[in-house]
Amino acid sequence: MVIFVLLMTVVTMLFVGHGLYYQVFVKCMSPWQADMAAWILSCGIETTVLVITANVKYFSSKQLPIFFAICSGFIVLFFIDAFNTTQPILDIAVRWFIGAMVCGLNYVYSELFVKKFNDELQATDMIKQIETLKQENEEYNRTISLIKSELSVAKEDSVKLLNQLVELEEFKRREIEKVTCKCGQVFTSIYKLAAHKATCSSNPNKGQKVSAFDDVPSNRIRVMK
Length: 225
Fold this sequence. Notes:
This protein is mostly helical and 225 residues long. Helix content is 75%, strand content 0%.
């Protein structure tokens, strides 16, 4: 709504500016040249006012909207011949009031236009940021899903490794038992164990010849045969 009203004011100023510029140009140009020049200059000035007002944040001075509002007021004053002192005082007062009102309206709507324009830019930026965050969130979710699947596979592998470790420990225990004497001494082979048992005090058959295969299960002996 603010932009619509501002555009109405701009359109009005186009016609007012055209009328004023035409009065000046027609004195030194042909009528059609003055008319064309007045329209071009009026459009150029109003467009410049809009562009500068919308981009006032890029200027060191923030008073440009005020300056152009005052200029628009003077354009109206010149157009309605407010400086003609031969007119009745009431007519002059009415003309000056109109000029001041146009000046104030242009300033107010210029400020509102800048604020609305900035709000639109911020809203657009917010939408872009939301879309970016959504994309990042989707990417994070995909990454988390991938990590969860990898973690599940790693967990299964760890369970398998743990079972294998238990089996290896059991195998190690059995192998150590095969080369361990009743006295608790551990040997590197069953042959050394057999030689030790012949002189071991814990062996009830001490002094007898001991075979290295005495501690080997009978089923394994049958297989070896």
